[in-house]
Structure prediction request, 480 residues.
Amino acid sequence: MHLVWFRRDLRGLDNRALSAASEASVPVVGIFIETPEQWASHHLAPKQAGLIKARLEALREELRAQNIPLVVERAADFSQSAEKVADYAHRIGAAAVFANKEYELNESKRDEQARVALADKGIAWYAYDDRNLFAPDTIKSGKGEPYKVFTPFKKACLRALDGMDASPRQKPPKREINSAVDAIFSQLKPIHFDYPTEDVSDWASDEKGILAHMRRYCREQVADYKRQRDFPAVDATSQLSPYLAIGALSPRQCLARLQEEHADWREPDTGAATWLSELIWRDFYQEVSAQNPAISKKYSFLAWGESVVWDNDLTLFEAWKAGKTGFPIVDAAMHQLNQTGWMHNRLRMIVASFLTKDLLIDWRWGEDYFMSKLIDGDFASNNGGWQWSASVGTDAQPYFRIFNPTTQGERFDSDGRFIRRWLPALKQVPGKHIHQPWQWADHYAQTLDYPRPVVDHATQRKKALAIFEAAKNQPQEQTP
Ligand SMILES: Cc1cc2nc3c(=O)[nH]c(=O)nc-3n(C[C@H](O)[C@H](O)[C@H](O)COP(=O)(O)OP(=O)(O)OC[C@H]3O[C@@H](n4cnc5c(N)ncnc54)[C@H](O)[C@@H]3O)c2cc1C
Prediction:
């Protein structure tokens, strides 16, 4: 018997651990462990927990067709989950446990604990790199060092793609069923989570639906990606991030379909090449977090980031979370996040810049809040995005380049279509005034059920420059 431990790789297709476990002609059983206390400490969004649960229900049926039962158990945290898997493997007489690696600190520790617990019971542990296009530590500079800057990393990835077989793995062959597997099937209980979950019926959770979404996007929308991806009113990005985050889809499946549909995927400036760049950003942040365990402990990548003296005003933080800052593009974005669990990338950059540079609030507060809401929450991408926005990460936005939330809104939602969708209180404000509605309301003696700006951008900008400058001039200790 072989046991496959599913984590953030909730797919039956193109799953390396599952394929490896299925190579021998032995029965295969799958297991997933809900870890509510660990998830709470990681601020897992109930939306994402809902997607995980829905996906497990679908995966269970998909694997059933292969005669592979999927057992769902509960343990408080990662440490107990490692013990639970070892005990379960022992109980069903598994010769080996197969899993795909996760590179964050707690996850790596959990896997080491599992390896040891299994070894004590004489059970083998096989772990595979399957989360990214390129496993961490495989793309290195000429000096053999990991990259800290995206563009050379991307170029090296593109070179490595030459001659690489990126074709996704097929489904494992249907297993023979025996009495032990039969017994496991008959004991399967409906999946119930202790962790809070939210409705995700707007999102497909079955393999067929997820693949159809990805294929449709590659066929019909990728060509326009570069031109349209920055405008949140247009649904021009793939919205595949929730699936990539929980591994319901692999980046290799995306790459293979992209290459099939777009012969120009290598040509710079095409939609296809730009979309591939984004998949490589995902790899880049996984690489950064795998290479720098201090990041998992919430340290800034740049040592001086620890010296920034944040204002951390609680009232302003609450206004930001609730989408009540008086800056329409920021507020509309936060409403999109709070109501759907997803936010457009341009808006993530705008609201993160606003929190850190206009409200002078520690980026880690924003990072945690995003995780608690995002259906696509992914530690490495989220942390990378926040550190970039706060100017303290690898390849970060320079601290003196501060987004102006009003001009960002004018540029990327010029007619206010996106803002009106999420802020009905601004429906009657004419397009050219939508980004500064109070100027219009005061001028025409109108009332608005909408807050006045909670800060003055020009004043805050000056303050932010001073705070960041001072932090950079502090004597620095190396980040641990
Ligand atoms: C402050 C901040 C926080 C973020 N938090 C997350 C997060 O928790 N989870 C997450 O998946 N992404 C995060 N991102 C990155 C990005 O915003 C989302 O991946 C993207 O908006 C998802 O939408 P999409 O699937 O339509 O992307 P597309 O534009 O269609 O891109 C395709 C895929 O590439 C990957 N990708 C795209 N942009 C990035 C990026 N900048 N960094 C890393 N991967 C990228 C995603 O997996 C995405 O699904 C964050 C960005 C910022 C600035």
